[in-house]
Amino acid sequence: MSFVRTVLGDIEPAALGVTYAHEHVILDAPIVEDRFPHILLDDVDVAIEELGNCAQVGVGAMIDAMPCGIGRDPVRLAAISEATGVHLVATTGLHTRKWYPGLSWANELPPDKLAELFVADIEDGIDRFDYRGPHVERTPHRAGVLKIATLQEEPNDRDHRAFAAAAITHRATGVPILTHCEEGRGGLEQVELLDQLGVDPGVVVLSHTDKVDDPGYHLALAATGVYLEYDQALRHPIDEHSTTVRMAAAVVEAGFGDQVMLGTDGARRSMWSGYGGKPGLAALARDLVPAMGRAGVSVDAISRILVDNPARFFTFAEVAQ
Contact at 8 Å (CB) between 316 and 174? Predict the structure, then answer.
């Protein structure tokens, strides 16, 4: 059976509908509150309001891209999903080193041990304490995507361990893999490393690449077979001249429209209307879609980007027996 794994259970891929492919719905950890309070997203009621606004403009699903140990909360995600009707997919995996002070396991464990944690999140349930303490208590809410990240263009030793763990986990579970490209760069190097680890590029999506205003870079990435996730539009005027729109239009025109997805990467209180910010997460579906149309992206291509591509990508691959 083909399925997408949400925090409330497995669903048919077609049930996702319009999907934001890289979001931050809950982001609540001591390091965030202490060092990065502008990205603290800890209020369930505000999240219900914000996602409710998105549902009103047709959004059916979001990928909450918060990996292990730095602020995910599957219980709160489940409550938000139940209240809004928006499907939420939770994440396992690792972000870059800076997010893990005092959590030596995240920076030192070998790939097989990291993979044990990731597989457990996917198959058994995400730890209620988010691997921040000595005790693990599995919730009934399971992860449906795995995130890994690089900080420089060339992966370092820690990155190699995390990427190797991702490859092990994918082979064991069929989970799709989402990556963080710092400042949009390093995508080709990530693809090369995953290829060396035996991961099919068709199960990989690179995030934040629209930070790079270079059509040649985007076409080179798309030619590898990976998906590209564009999520910077809400940080700039939303019009047909934005980098997000122009890069998406270039990739679609070159014949790679089946490999593009959109998100907001909305880890900013200043972006959420519920926290008094602008333009609100609903602006992606409400305002960016018309801008893409004005840039020449067809209605069919936009539907593929928002609906068909996420449904295909976030479906678990079959696992070899």
Answer: yes
Could you list the residue range(s) of the whole structural domain that residue 61 is in?
4-313
- On whether residue 233 sits in a domain, the answer given is yes
320 inside domain: no
Which value, to the nearest 10 degrees, does the dihedral of the CA atoms of residues 3, 85, 72, 304 take? 50
Euclidean distance between CA atoms 162 and 165, whole angstroms: 5
Residue with the two structure tokens 């990928």? 63
Alpha-carbon distance of 189 to 90, in angstroms, equals 26
Q: Does 121 fall in a domain?
A: yes
d(CA 203, CA 144): 13
CA-wise closest residue to 25 among 263, 216, 199, 227: 263
The number of folded domains in the chain is 1
CATH of the domain at 110: 3.20.20.140
pLDDT in tens, 176-216: 999 999 999 999 999 999 999 999 999 999 999 999 999 99
Strand-pairing partners, residue 180, are: 149, 207
What's this model's pTM, rounded to 2 decimal places? Answer: 0.97
Q: Which two tokens stand for residue 64?
A: 């909450």
